[in-house]
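Exercise 7.
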Amino acid sequence: MAKDYYKTLGVEKGASKEEVKKAFHKLAHKYHPDKQGGDEAKFKEINEAYQILSDDNKRTQYDQFGEAGASGGFGGGQGFGGFDFSGFQNANGGQGFEFDLGDIFGEMFGGRGGERSRTRRGRDISVDIQISFKEAIFGVERQILINKISQCDTCHGSGAEAGSQMKKCPTCGGKGKVNETRRSIFGVFQSSRECDVCQGRGEVPEKKCQTCRGEGVLNKQENIKVKVPAGLEAGEMIRLAGLGEAVFGGQAGDLYVKVHIEKNNMWKRAGYDLVTEIKIKLTDALLGTDYKLETLDGPLTLKVPAGITYGEILRVKGKGVPVRGGSRRGDLLIRVTFPTPAKLS
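Solution. The predicted structure, written as tokens, is:
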């Protein structure tokens, strides 16, 4: 029975080469024998159809004379262009050749090109610190000592001893990349990757730094200043760009500082306001009084008006939490309570 290559790929007879290519990629990915649910026989049919329809001369012969006409230019009808799948197994079988399907399709659609262009970047790290309630309201500076991979202070990250010249990398010839040729079921693919010796810089020191042994980075303790802004809330993270771990020939990661705030026995935060509760005598509530109140700014004399009701809130403006990005502050909210006797004389 004559083979219908157009039907095999699911395209019309007048389909363009691009449509044929897309159809092949889709079906090859679906029926690849190395995938779960794959079909080796179906995969061979798809590949054979693609070999004919993707070649202008073979496609013309096939359109005019059918399968017999195309076979003459197809090397006796061998469907894999020189690859024999009779002994094909996956990588665990130990036969055939190994390949990564994701890499192959990545090469076809340019997926690896973006990967090569990415800048090397060091690892992000995080630390936790604890501050007082007052420090969280008004801000504070802290010094923290952390152990991390940092730039070498001797060679300043170059990896070269002082006075040593740089020379062309012998591995990549100064290009910063090395070419690789990989054989796959779809043919031979060439790709380039960053040189492991010079880390993509194209040059290496003639004499390596003795401190870091040419690595440009080393593990050491570093004292870092952390500025906690005023009005910080519990659990917030402070990001210090470029203070994470360093990497040779690339950009350092970031340091994230998570801030924990101690509780205050008197004051609580409500947005930009500070809230507390005071208890006065009944006579003071009836007649009024001056109440000595300890605030985060220091002692404050609070005037309690005569005849205040139970639970009434007094407001002191401008003594609360500083508003970020401005000079304004929230308020103090003081809830007033007092004992109420069951019987009055």
